[in-house]
Specification:
Blueprint (H helix, E strand, L loop, with lengths): L2 H11 L10 E4 L1 H4 L1 H14 L6 E6 L7 H4 L6 H6 L13 H13 L2 H7 E5 L4 E5 L5 E4 L5 H19 L3 E9 L3 H13 L5 E4 L2 H7 L4 H12 L3
Parallel strand pairs: 2-3, 2-6, 6-7
Antiparallel strand pairs: 1-4, 4-5
Length: 229
C-alpha cells in the first residue's frame, strides 16, 4: 500500500465511540460529509502516492474551520483551492492557523516539497466542540478538561500507533503548541517512547492571534527547525 492508501484507510476507520462529558460533541468530517472523505482522499493521492516515510507534525485536534471540515489538517477550503488545487463542494471556510501553515509550506518550497517530507496530524485526530449558554458551538481541546483527556487517552494512543505504522520516521516529531499540547505529548512520549525526541513549535493560532507582527520571524523559525529533520 502507498502512504496515501494507508492514510485514507486510517481516516475511514476513525471512530470515537466513548461517552463524552456533557455538552461536548465530536467532529468527524469523514462520517458527516462524504465529500470531505472524497476530497481528502484526492489530497492524499495527489501528495502521498508513494511508499517513502514522512516526519510527523502533531497539532492539538482539528478545528471547526480547518480539518474539522476538510479532513486535511490545517487546511481550510481557501488554502485547499488556492494551494492544493482541490475543492470541497458547497463549503467555504477560513482558518487563521491554515493561513500561517501555508506560509510555512510555501517558504519550505511549496506543497509538493513539504508534503513529500512531512505528514501533519493531531495528538487527537478528531476534534471536539462544546456548546455555550446560547447553544453555539466552539472549538474544544482534548486537554481542556481532565475528564475529556482521560476519556480520549485510549483513542489518542491507538491513533498515534496506527499513524506511526503508516511509515513515519520516528527520529523526531514536531509538536504544534509549546504549552499544554507539548507538555502532554512530551510526557506521553517519555512513557511510550514513540519518538526519539519531540520538538515544540509555537502554535499557528497563537502566532496569528497574538504575535502577528512577528509572523515572518516565526516562519523562519519553523523552516530552520523543520529542515533539521
Amino acid at each position: 500500500m502507498t502512504f496515501a492508501e494507508k492514510v485514507i484507510a486510517f481516516n475511514i476507520s476513525l471512530q470515537f465511540s466513548l461517552k463524552l462529558p456533557e455538552n461536548i460533541g465530536i467532529m468527524n468530517p469523514f462520517a458527516e460529509n462524504p465529500d470531505a472523505l472524497k476530497t481528502a482522499s484526492a489530497f492524499y493521492h495527489k501528495f502521498y502516492n508513494d511508499e517513502h516515510p514522512r516526519t510527523l507534525i502533531l497539532g492539538i485536534n482539528p478545528g471547526r474551520f480547518g480539518a474539522g471540515i476538510t479532513g486535511i489538517p490545517f487546511t481550510d477550503t481557501k488554502r485547499l483551492t488556492e494551494n492544493c488545487e482541490l475543492e470541497l463542494p458547497g463549503v467555504s471556510t477560513y482558518e487563521l492557523s491554515s493561513v500561517f501553515v501555508y506560509e510555512v509550506i510555501i517558504a519550505y518550497g511549496g506543497v509538493k516539497a513539504f508534503y513529500n517530507d512531512f505528514y501533519i496530524s493531531s495528538v487527537c485526530p478528531l476534534g471536539f466542540v462544546i456548546k455555550d449558554e446560547k447553544g453555539r458551538e466552539k472549538n474544544y481541546n482534548y486537554y481542556d478538561s481532565k475528564a475529556l483527556q482521560e476519556i480520549a487517552m485510549p483513542f489518542i494512543l491507538k491513533t498515534i500507533k496506527d499513524q506511526i505504522a503508516m511509515g513515519i520516521d520516528t527520529s523526531v516529531c514536531y509538536c504544534l503548541g509549546t504549552g499544554k499540547n507539548y507538555k502532554f505529548l512530551h510526557a506521553l512520549n517519555e512513557e511510550m517512547r514513540f519518538f526519539k525526541k519531540i520538538v515544540p513549535l509555537e502554535h499557528p493560532r497563537y502566532i496569528m492571534q497574538y504575535k502577528s507582527k512577528q509572523k515572518e520571524g516565526y516562519v523562519e523559525k519553523y523552516i530552520t527547525l523543520l529542515k533539521l529533520h
